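Repro case for the chain-ordering regression, as requested:
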Amino acid sequence: MDRSSRYGDINQEVALEIHALIINEDTGYVDKTNATGDQQLKLDVACDLLIEKAFRDNSDIYALISEEKEDVMRCNSEGRYTLCYDPLDGSSIVDVNLAVGAIFAIYEGEPSGDTIVGASYVVFGPRIEVVTTIRDEAPTRYRYIDGDYQVFHPIVMGNKGHINASGGSQKHWQDKHITFIHVLFSEGYRLRYSGGMVPDLHQVLVKGGGLFSYPSTTDSPNGKLRVLFEVLPFALIFEAAGGEAIDEKGRPLLELTVTHPHARTPCFFGSHYEIKRLKEAYGVV
Ligand code: FDP
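-- result from build under test --
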């Protein structure tokens, strides 16, 4: 997938431009919500536009699907790829200056679990890091140092970690999820949850294992995270790193079909041990 790998390089440039917006732009809201009802920040809109401009005239791109756009944006009828992206993930924590991210997924043909061919994300923390993968290849981690991207340590997950990160209001967790989370803590797992999926998942990957969950809850039966530009790119990266990514029924997320650009799904990303324990707790072994 030479052509899709080129987007990794483009993303590195785009990452620097997004970073410039993050550090300089107003973090206030616009008078609008996005397609899934989240309040949009001026920064969300500016980052979305920046990415749109970077890719819309690329002859390989058939369409763009953004978290911040209601509809699919058709670009080039001859293009092979649809780029789905979340331009600024973690907008609810940008005002408190925690790490945020951007997520990109490349699909060849109609976007779904079996057509994703590449994914990357950017972590805007104290430093900028970009992680990219192409289907069936181990992820590459780059860190921006001294004005250049340098390949950093590879991301390889072990069989078992020690981090436990779960989203959703605890008040609305299902009983099986409450029990499962307590079981992990009783085994010695430590809570690590910032409220930004990019840094939280990056931490599980970089520390070599653990679990990140965003389950269904009584107030949100499909969970919160969006399939095309949040869930599937991380599923590809976790599997490429030697981990697993499943839904509540124990199905690999990469087998999901997608019915709507803004569809959501409950999702779990982790190393083998935690995913095995999760399947036992959820009765989907
Ligand atoms: P945000 O709404 O700030 O954009 O994308 C959704 C997301 O952040 C994820 O980054 C994060 O993991 C999740 O929402 C946090 O949701 P909860 O506050 O419900 O845990």
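Ordering looks correct now. Residues 89-93, 167-168, 195-197, 200, 224, 230 surround 2,6-di-O-phosphono-beta-D-fructofuranose (CB under 6 Å).
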